[in-house]
Prior knowledge:
The chain is α/β, with parallel strands linked by helices. Helix content is about 40%, strand content about 15%.
Amino acid sequence: xxxxxxIANWKLNGNKNFVKEFxxxxxxxxxxxxxxxxVIIAPPIIYIKYMSKKIHxxxxxxxxxxxxxxxQGAFTGEISPNMINxxxxxxxxxxxxxxxxxxxxxxxxxxKKFFSVKKNKLIPILCIGETQEExxxxxxxxxxxxxxxxxxxxxxxxxxxxxxxxxEPIWSIGTGENASPDDVNKIMKFIKNYIIKKSLYKKINxxxxxxxxxxxxxxxxxxxxxxxxxxxxxxxxxQYKNFLKIIQKCNV
Length: 252
Ligand code: PGA
């Protein structure tokens, strides 16, 4: 059975004590606990190196929440994919709706980052999804298609091989209102078929994550769906006990 993948997006949360406590809790857990689950943590980037050194559990990997597409040069404040690689992260979250909204990241910029990330042998976790208004206008598939097409255009027909897509309807992020697992399953199926149709390889390794108010209460109904490979968890990952319950319920 394919392992379920649980990604924790801490966003701009945590501090030294929080990180130390998290490391302590994870290290005290029996490693068998994680046997059927793959866990990826995306803390604020400055904690990754420390966490990757101190966490003994080899099943836990790390992701950055952002990256620049340039490799080096006069780009004040930016961090390149190769730097992220050096500090021990394998994955990079791209195009999160908070970055699209607050940092004006558009599909083209995200596609450039995606290209750069893959070129550096890191794995992109591309976030896509529609707003409430777009959902009400029945535009979900159009929006998703556009977000995906820009990646194909910029990165070629095999862009999505060995990558993750996180479908995160914007109206469900941080609201306590998760999308219906049946609806998500249908959208995931659409995403998978659409990407396979456009890809050169017909068997591509693509992981589909759902994100948006995932909690210990709804995870079971989400994770049992055929086209959902895992989840991307924001606030539900900030309390260790909750996060552990989410992992536990994926560990079937
Ligand atoms: P949430 O966030 O779980 O707090 O809704 C998910 C995300 O933003 O990735």
